[in-house]
Structures are given as structure tokens and as C-alpha cells.
């Protein structure tokens, strides 16, 4: 009908193709990883495993890479149009594997900061950043285990998958936003601790402060764009029993 065409026309005009958006998001994620590595290498002394501040430097690099960029990639797997038809199991495995890789990097990042604190005699878990970060990791652990049990194990009942799916989707976005908030607070905390005696103070915005603040903003933009992509109706994988799904399968499969 005419009313239906008028209703869908604005949506179609505003629709953005997923592939170029995904390419832009991938480039942004790689930029975030490159910038956090550059920050730690150029201004913070590089990397080592000796318990010094160079051991700590692994923490921000692994957290940004795992808990933000790789986790964001895992979240967007089902937005790829190729996942909308054919067997779903390979995409489930890819989604779970990317999330598992993010979790492994996150655990290594936690190990780096705890090793640094213990070697230096610094107390653990006293700042808001540490509380928020650990809560995010624990929530991520529960999310991955519950997702594995509900969606990858073959004996999980259909009703359980249907019940848990919206919960899994919601907490996926929530964990990503918590990860972004943890990274932003961690960057700010590190700058406050580092830019004081013997260096240009943080309030005077030396080059390191500008660089790290920019990194924090890019991480925030990355997280917001991922959540926006997850919420966009036209990029959601249609339910297998819906009319839209059958139309998609006819269009993809001929």
C-alpha cells in the first residue's frame, strides 16, 4: 500500500550499508590498539615481565585489545548478512571463539596489573577503576559461560535459549559499555599518577595528556558505534520463523 511505502521510504533512505560501516569500525578499533601501544611504548617506557612499570604497560594494551576491540568484534558477528541464512553453528563458534580470545587477553591484562602492584607493594582493588574493571570481567565471565551453555551445548532446551537470548543480548551491550567506562577511567587514573613530579603536570596538557585523552575519546566512540550497530533494526538477524527471515533467505538463496 501507499502508506506502507511511505513508512519504509525514510528508513531505506537513512539505512547505511553494513560492510563500509564494519570496515570503518575495524579501522577505528585497530587505531585504538595502535594508540594504546604507542602510548605505553613512547611515553611509559615499553614492555617487560619484570614486575616494573613496564609490566604494568601490558595491562592497558591487553584490556583495550581484548575487552573492547575483540569483544566488540564478537558482538557484531551476527550482524554480518552472511549469517542470516544457512547453518548457524559456524557463526556461533566464531562468536564464542572471539569472546573467548577477548577473555584470555583480559585475564592476562589483569595478571599484569596484579603482578606490578604486588612487586611494588601497591595495594590492589582500592580505586573505582579497579572495582568497575573487575566487576566487568566477572560479568563477562558469567556471560560467556551462560552463552556457551545455552547456545553451543546441543542438549540445551529450546525454551531456555529463547528465554536467555534477550538477556544475553542486553548484557552483551552492557558489558561493552562497562569496558569502555573502565578503560576511560583507567586512562585518566594513569595520567593523574604519572604526570606530576618530574614531568609536565596533567592540568597543563602536555603531549602525552592530549594523546591519551584522544585515545579515551576514540575508545568511547568505538563502543557507542558498536552498541548503535547492535540496536539498529535493519542489521539484526531475522528470527528463523518470521516473514522477514523467509524473505531474506529467498533473496540470498534465490
UniProtKB/TrEMBL annotation:
Alphabetized InterPro entries for the sequence: CYB561/CYBRD1-like, Cyt_b561/ferric_Rdtase_TM
Q: Is-annotated flag, keyword Lyase?
A: no
Question: For this protein, what reaction is catalysed?
Answer: Fe(3+)(out) + L-ascorbate(in) = monodehydro-L-ascorbate radical(in) + Fe(2+)(out) + H(+)
Q: Which GO terms describe its molecular function?
A: metal ion binding; transmembrane ascorbate ferrireductase activity
Instruction: List, alphabetically, the GO terms of the cellular component aspect.
Output: late endosome membrane; lysosomal membrane
Task: Give the main localization category.
Answer: membrane
Arranged from A to Z, the UniProt key words for this protein are:
Electron transport, Endosome, Glycoprotein, Heme, Iron, Lysosome, Membrane, Metal-binding, Oxidoreductase, Translocase, Transmembrane, Transmembrane helix, Transport
The reply to whether Cell cycle figures as a keyword in the UniProt entry is no
Q: What's one Pfam family the UniProt record gives for this protein? A: Cytochrom_B561
UniProt signal peptide: none
Subcellular localization, as worded in the UniProt entry: Late endosome membrane; Lysosome membrane
Q: Where do the Cytochrome b561 domain residues begin and end?
A: 24-231
Topology in the membrane?
A: Multi-pass membrane protein
Q: Which cofactor does it need?
A: heme b
Q: Which Enzyme Commission number(s) are listed?
A: 7.2.1.3
Q: What parts of the sequence cross the membrane? A: 21-39, 59-81, 93-114, 134-155, 167-187, 207-231
Q: What does this protein do?
A: Transmembrane reductase that uses ascorbate as an electron donor in the cytoplasm and transfers electrons across membranes to reduce iron cations Fe(3+) into Fe(2+) in the lumen of the late endosome and lysosome. Reduced iron can then be extruded from the late endosome and lysosome to the cytoplasm by divalent metal-specific transporters. It is therefore most probably involved in endosomal and lysosomal cellular iron homeostasis.
Name the PANTHER family on file: CYTOCHROME B561-RELATED, LYSOSOMAL MEMBRANE ASCORBATE-DEPENDENT FERRIREDUCTASE CYB561A3
Q: How does it assemble?
A: Homodimer.
**Under what name is this protein listed?**
Lysosomal membrane ascorbate-dependent ferrireductase CYB561A3
Instruction: Give the organism the record lists.
Output: Sterrhoptilus dennistouni
Amino acid at each position: 500500500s501507499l502508506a506502507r511505502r511511505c513508512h519504509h521510504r525514510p528508513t531505506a533512505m537513512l539505512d547505511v550499508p553494513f560492510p563500509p560501516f564494519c570496515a570503518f569500525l575495524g579501522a577505528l578499533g585497530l587505531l585504538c590498539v595502535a594508540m594504546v601501544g604507542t602510548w605505553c611504548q613512547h611515553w611509559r617506557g615499553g614492555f617487560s615481565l619484570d614486575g616494573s612499570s613496564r609490566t604494568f604497560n601490558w595491562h592497558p594494551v591487553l584490556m583495550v585489545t581484548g575487552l573492547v576491540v575483540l569483544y566488540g568484534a564478537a558482538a557484531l558477528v551476527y550482524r554480518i548478512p552472511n549469517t542470516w541464512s544457512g547453518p548457524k553453528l559456524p557463526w556461533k563458534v566464531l562468536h564464542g571463539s572471539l569472546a573467548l580470545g577477548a577473555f584470555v587477553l583480559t585475564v592476562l591484562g589483569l595478571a599484569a596489573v596484579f603482578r606490578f602492584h604486588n612487586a611494588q607493594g601497591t595495594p590492589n582493588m582500592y580505586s573505582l577503576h579497579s572495582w568497575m574493571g573487575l566487576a566487568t570481567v566477572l560479568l563477562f565471565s558469567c556471560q560467556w559461560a551462560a552463552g556457551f551453555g545455552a547456545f553451543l551445548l546441543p542438549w540445551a532446551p529450546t525454551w531456555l535459549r529463547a528465554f536467555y537470548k534477550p538477556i544475553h543480548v542486553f548484557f552483551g551491550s552492557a558489558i561493552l559499555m562497562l569496558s569502555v567506562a573502565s578503560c576511560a577511567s583507567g586512562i585518566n587514573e594513569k595520567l593523574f599518577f604519572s604526570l606530576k613530579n618530574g614531568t609536565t603536570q596533567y592540568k597543563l596538557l602536555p603531549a602525552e595528556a592530549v594523546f591519551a585523552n584522544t585515545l579515551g575519546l576514540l575508545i568511547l566512540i568505538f563502543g557507542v558505534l558498536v552498541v548503535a550497530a547492535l540496536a539498529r533494526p535493519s542489521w539484526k538477524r531475522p528470527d528463523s520463523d518470521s516473514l522477514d527471515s523467509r524473505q531474506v533467505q529467498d533473496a540470498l538463496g534465490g
